[in-house]
Amino acid sequence: MSPLFRIINTIIQLHSGDSILPVNGKAKGNNGERILAKILSEYLGGSFVRVPNSGAFIGGKNQTRKDTLSVTQIRSSKGDIIPPDDYPNLVVECKFYKDIAYHSLAVDQNVTLLDTWIKELEYDCDENDFGILCFKTNNRKW
């Protein structure tokens, strides 16, 4: 990719927040998970870490995997962030997305994307779990 193209892309990003370069969504999500794990570690103490190869290892259609895993294996595969031992029932789902229709929340309209994320979290949680959904949109801080 030419240096001129990168400069033009940077100018577009500075003015509009958008990019004309393709975005690797998986890498973007992984990086967002690492940043969130670091923030949770700093604020709550302990070591929060990203679930290796996260992506519904035991969630969704993969629920049957729980039948052959130990309690520790299940716990370390729920959500996107592995919490420290002090939070054994915490399930953290992390989303890093371009944009979300925040205005729809203010007027009590459904936000399909948010509803989908909440269903994913509910699917990952067992009866005694406490699930939290953390999401970040482009050009906004956690």
* DSSP strand content: 5-15%
- Enumerate how many helices there are, as a single number: 5
Summarize the main sheet: 2 strands, antiparallel
The first-to-last residue Cα distance is 31 Å
Mean pLDDT: 77
Please state the CA-atom Rg, rounded to the nearest Å.
18 Å
What is the total tally of β strands? 4
Secondary-structure-based class equals: alpha+beta
Q: Percent range for helical residues?
A: 40-55%
Shape: globular
Strand order of the largest sheet: 1-2
Residue runs with pLDDT of under 50 for 5 or more positions? none
Strand-and-helix sequence, N→C?
Answer: HHEHEEHHE
What would you say this structure looks like, in words?
By secondary structure, the chain is an alpha+beta fold. It is built from 5 helices and 4 strands, in the order ααβαββααβ. It has helices at residues 3-16, 25-44, 71-75, 102-106, 112-124; strands spanning 49-50, 81-82, 90-97, 130-137. The two termini are 31 Å apart. The model has no long low-confidence stretch (mean pLDDT 77).
Compile the SSE list and pairings.
Blueprint: H1 3-16, H2 25-44, E1 49-50, H3 71-75, E2 81-82, E3 90-97, H4 102-106, H5 112-124, E4 130-137
Parallel strand pairs: 3-4
Antiparallel strand pairs: 1-2
Name some characteristics of this structure:
single chain, two-stranded parallel ribbon, 5 helices, 4 strands, 142 residues, alpha+beta, two-stranded antiparallel sheet
Task: Tell me briefly what this model is.
The chain has helices at residues 3-16, 25-44, 71-75, 102-106, 112-124, and strands at 49-50, 81-82, 90-97, 130-137.
